[in-house]
Design a protein that fits this description.
Length: 157
């Protein structure tokens, strides 16, 4: 009968313990691949459903169904022509030359007048512009209570 000494048992145990992190890494790698494949299948299914829904409504993309002839200046939003495309980086530097065209909404546009309302409570400026086939919108909001949405969440309630 073959008997292992204490040294050989210790070496065998050490090799097994050195192997554990590698096995954990392989497990995490396989799990990530599995989750990515599931996410990809879900995305493909959603895309197919959206394509099917849009395919059944060809009038959505007809020029004849355009509503531009019904737009009334002063009542509807007007998109000004922009000289350059706007960089979508969250900064307002591209809009500085159009600042005179911003629409200001503050206390004057409240449905219910309230003497407690200050301009710093809530007001916003906005502008809509177009460049080539792209439509850009700017909203510059002033609020005395800044609330951030939670990280890794697209909705805010």
């Amino acid at each position: 009968m073959l008997r292992f000494g204490l040294r050989s048992k210790f070496i065998l145990l050490s090799c097994f313990l050195f192997l554990l992190p590698w096995l954990g890494y392989e497990y995490v790698w396989e799990m990530e691949k599995f989750l990515r494949q599931g996410q990809e299948k879900t995305l493909v299914g959603t895309t197919r459903a959206l394509a099917t829904a849009l395919h059944e409504r060809p009038a959505l993309f007809d020029q004849q169904t355009s509503f531009l002839d019904q737009v009334v200046k002063g009542r509807d939003l007007y998109a000004y022509n922009l000289k350059n495309p706007i960089q979508l980086d969250g900064k307002l530097t591209d809009w500085e030359s159009y600042q005179a065209l911003f629409w200001q909404y503050d206390k004057r546009y409240l449905q219910k007048t309230d003497n407690k309302h200050q301009a710093s409570d809530l007001s916003f400026e906005h502008m809509v512009g177009k460049f080539d086939n792209y439509l850009y919108a700017l909203f510059k909001v002033t609020d005395n209570q800044l609330v951030y949405r939670p990280k890794k969440q697209f909705k805010y309630y």
